[in-house]
Design goal:
With about 725 residues, the chain is α/β, with parallel strands linked by helices. The chain contains 24 helices and twelve strands. A hairpin with a 5-residue loop joins strand 6 and strand 7 (about 485-490).
Length: about 725
Amino acid sequence: MNIDLSNVEIFDADKLELDKKITFIYGKNGTGKSTLTNEIKKKLSSEYEVSIFQGFTNIIDENRRLNAVVLGTENASINKEIAAKKIEIDALNGKIDSIWSTLQQPDDENTNYWSRRKDAQDTYAKKEKQIEDFYTRAASEIKKMRNPQIVDGSYNKKLFQRDIPEAKMLDREQIDELVATIKSEDKVAPIIEFPDVDCTKLYQEVEKILSKRVTEKIKIERLENNPDKREFAKLGLKIHSHDDVCAFCGNPIKNDTFDELERYFSVSEVKSFQNEIADKLKEIETLSRSVAGLQIDITRFYPSFHNRLKDIKQELEDRKKEIIPFLTALYNHLTEKQKYLFESIELKSLSIPIGLENVKFNYDDVLKNNNENDLLEKKKEASEKLRKHYVKMALDNFEYDVAYAELNIAKADKEKYEREFFDEEQKIEGYGGLKEQINRIQNDLLELYSQTKNETLLAETINKKLSHMISFELVHVDDEESKGFYRVKDTSTGREREITELSTGEKNIIAFLYFIGKLDEIKETNLDKPRVIVFDDPMNSNDDGMQYVIIEELQNLMNNLRKTDSFVLLTHNKHFYLNVTYNHKYDKDRYYRFVFNGSKTIFTRIENVNDDFKTSYESLWCDLKQLFMLDEVSPDLLLNPIRRIIETYTKFNGISKIAFCKKVDGAYKLFNVNSHSIDDVEAELNGKNKKEIIQMLFDCFERNGEENHFKKHWGDVEASADGTILL
């Protein structure tokens, strides 16, 4: 429940949150307590039954008389009906209490609808937080990855979650390939001229040459049918000249022998055949060197093609291992044939290898794709694949499937117990539920109450509560319009007097008890709206003798509030504040302190006992610290609480203010004179800032041997070597 204060100039905040059943507000006079009370009435009256106590003047009529209360106990038969109806209501309330007890936090270790729902909600929240934290942590780790960087700075847990359905683990080789792609630069692979190796055709050509023989046109009997001798003679002709001595036999070589051999080996058919063999040998040698020199440089290609290139390269090496020995065998046969020009030679059986056509086709295909490749797109694809790999790795390390299954189980349990809790709650709040039944009976009671009146009941109740504390009693009187009001009757003399003749304190306690009685009437007769009950300074300065009656009534009221009631108490009285809040917990009730900073009132929420004061003396220190912390507060506003602190301290310890202050130059004048002149804030008579004023207060306590007293109430501070405290 929020109170909109955006149009209220005195308050620094735009709203005040009343989110607890009970709210305590402490603030000095002039901090806007009554203004807030009026805003509560203005803003909440349409939805709530707002009851406000602001003293005696707000509950008397235009004739200055205290109005009578109508409760209805006159007619006996109606009373029986009322009693029966109340028994029904009590029974239904008993059922409500029984059900509510299962919907509230149990006092012991037993389980109920509340605890089962709470445990399921906590379990689900814990599981959900674990997974949400994992999303955040995993996304952060992926975003931090470098060398290479696979995501930009915008990657977050939502994008991580989006990657989960496509997350996939990669092997080391795939990872290395993707990393190399991301790091790679533009690559243009070279064209390889693969030789046309038709082994079948080559085999047939060599076989044909080997089977061919030359017919001898000139016959030399010593060489006939002997290839070795012919080859020997051919070699001798080559290495010898006319008039040389034969290197073999040592005899001079005759010119006729030279002429004979030259004619024998220079026959055109022989020469032509020798050239044919030589040409084929050269062809095979060139082809063999060309095949042997074929090399594929994988590094000249993008990493995404490396695996395919490895296969192509291996196929090339396999072909080379078959082709080169094959060519060598053909070459050797042709070399041998040079000795047997006049005889046929049989070509030994050889396995004819496959050519390089398939290698060439595959290499050219990869070459084309590589050189036409869009590198930026490949890098993007590589980054995505690598990112989803690390997403999968993070999921597996976290055991995400198990955690997500546990979350779904926890969600199902949460929904189950929330549904059970809701179904049970609907027995009270739902259509045809217990509250609706009570409302119907309550409507019947309203009709019965309208038929009977007893205007003396409230007076009897007030008289009973005050019988031992005052010397008068209230008497109910009917006027000529049959409208009841109350007069005061002195119990010793019997004299009657107007209620306006009582003292302020007496009128206030009567008004207070009257207000409490009217609350009972509202509680009995109006269940349509939730109640908001506000006490605006119920304890005034003349009520000291009655404060414990007021405190007891307020404690009883707070202990018996309905589930839908809200209670707000505002006070300026420190002693009353300490007593009325006794035994109330800071985590169950809401506490505020209103502080005026010189221009506006600031709301300070009190969260625990350490932030609140426990005595009136401590409240002075709390006020001083708050004024010190507010930047917009003038230093002069600190002087009044300091003066009262010094007065209280010196009076309690039996020392004079002069003796206490004289040990610090200017302290007595500052804390005794200027504190009475703070109305003129702009004048800043003391000329000191806040820290200097607090330093002087510290010096007063420190030089009187009470440094620890200052630290106890201000908080632990450190002092430098020259005595300056660090604030």
